[in-house]
Design brief:
This protein has 333 residues and is of the alpha/beta class. Helix 7 links the parallel strand 13 and strand 14. Helix 4 crosses helix 5 and helix 4 packs across helix 9. The protein starts with a strand and ends with a strand.
């Protein structure tokens, strides 16, 4: 039986304890409705770090993380429709919903209680091969190579949904807090739609990137003016009251991460009065993914991404934890 190199989350813990281990596994076989994908690139997402460190509790032992997967279809199970052998394909975070619950019927499959996720409920892309349900895979925009399209599959899609959840008015002022892989893509969408973007980040390299992409300001403190909408990408709950205080009347804060440290006590008059809103962002629907990838085809985005050998997956996660990654790191088998 053919085998492959892969990384598993063996014992979740601080990244310095090396929670990933490199293993040799059998190449998986596609079941009904599934594609076997030879991985050509897999983005390194902060969700992978949360899984490795235990902030996101494992649901199965020794899971292969990774859900920003680009690859080539090399085999398919029965009834796997929409792709042919040799097609380039994208595999993202959402991999299953029941399609029968009230959330799915209402177009909110991201809230489905039976939802399942790549690199959490099933092995993901920190490997040479993976399997994925064809119904949840994506056709990819041809304007990007494998390394630069990989971050679009989670960082891009989640940033896009967070931007929509933030209810940014046309031509409005957007505050972006944290400026990693997802933020630098969402900011470009907002800029393309005519927004004024203010970025708050401590990292000097991220500040330079934000200004280079067209942000009106980038600093470590606060925007120079109140903002109509804000997205918090940093998983730091203590920033929630800070960002709420930066909103103009009627503004909305969307929190983009899957994990957030505890939020301090909010003061109603200071943080929420004048009809300010606080929203979470939970995964995405497939329509979000299709809409964003179509936008990325029609509005070329500058994806800041650096390839890393698959053998350096642990180092890539450590660099992400230490804020040493500008844009996105992408593993290349």
């Amino acid at each position: 039986m053919a085998r492959m190199l892969a990384w598993q989350v063996h014992r979740p813990g601080p990244i310095g304890t090396r929670p990933l281990r490199q293993v040799s596994l059998p190449v998986p076989q596609p079941g009904p409705g599934e594609l076997l994908v030879r991985v050509t690139a897999c983005g390194v997402c902060r969700t992978d770090l949360h899984l490795a460190e235990g902030d996101l509790p494992p649901v199965r032992p020794d899971t292969v993380p990774g859900h920003e997967i680009v690859g080539e279809v090399v085999d398919a199970g029965a009834d796997a429709a929409g792709f042919a052998i040799g097609d380039r394909v994208g595999v993202a975070w959402l991999r299953h919903t029941d399609q029968t619950c009230r959330y799915c019927r209402a177009g909110a499959e991201n809230l489905c209680p039976a939802s399942r996720y790549t690199g959490w409920h099933a092995d993901g892309g920190y490997a040479q091969y993976t399997v994925a349900p064809a119904d949840y895979a994506y056709q990819l925009p041809g304007a990007y190579d494998d390394v630069h399209v990989a971050p679009l599959l989670c960082a891009g899609i989640i940033g896009y949904r967070a931007l929509r959840r933030a209810d940014l008015p046309r031509g409005g002022r957007l505050g972006v807090y944290g400026f990693g892989a997802s933020a630098h893509l969402a900011a470009q969408v907002a800029l393309a739609e005519g927004a004024t973007v203010h970025v708050v980040t401590r990292a000097p390299a991220a500040q330079r990137l934000a200004l280079d992409l067209g942000a009106a300001s980038a600093g470590a403190d606060r925007p120079p003016e109140p903002v109509d909408a804000a997205i918090l990408f940093a998983p730091v709950g203590s920033l929630v009251p800070v960002v709420l205080s930066h909103l103009d009347r009627g503004g909305t804060l969307a929190i983009a991460g899957i994990h957030l440290t505890d939020i301090p006590t909010l003061n109603y008059e200071e943080h929420l009065f004048y009809e300010r809103s606080l929203r979470s962002v939970t995964a995405n629907t497939r329509d979000d993914g299709r809409d964003f990838l179509a936008f990325a085809q029609d509005h070329p985005l500058r994806v800041t991404a650096g390839p890393r050998p698959l053998a350096q997956a642990g180092e890539a996660l450590a660099d992400l934890a230490a804020d040493r990654v500008t844009g996105a790191a992408v593993l290349v088998p």
